[in-house]
Amino acid sequence: MLSKIHQFVKQYGHDLFVGACLILVAYISYNLGLAQRVIPKSAAILPESSVLPSQKTIFKPTATPKPKDPRVVASKNSKTKSYYYSWCTNRIKAENQVWFGTEIEAQKAGYTLAGNCS
Q1: Domain chopping of the chain, boundaries
Q2: In the predicted structure, residue 73 carries a pLDDT above the cut 80
């Protein structure tokens, strides 16, 4: 009998391991779900008095900083007439690049900002 069990484990060891892992994950998930129902939601919220003064800092979103390099680049052979910022990834060959000093110059030349470079 013991040799049959040993042979079975030897033959199906990997499958048994995967099955045991799945059962363990299911068991842990089930118990986490139970724990979530048992613990009241108000217990998870800290009272205002427990917050340290240094933790009361409110971060306000700041405007996106303007780039230091205002130049834009476009392709001579572009059918879409799109331009890119100098820091955007583009694959324009060096011989096909047209550089503009600012976005306004590129727009005056009929180019628009590329969709992947905003």
Answers
A1: 2-40, 72-113
A2: yes
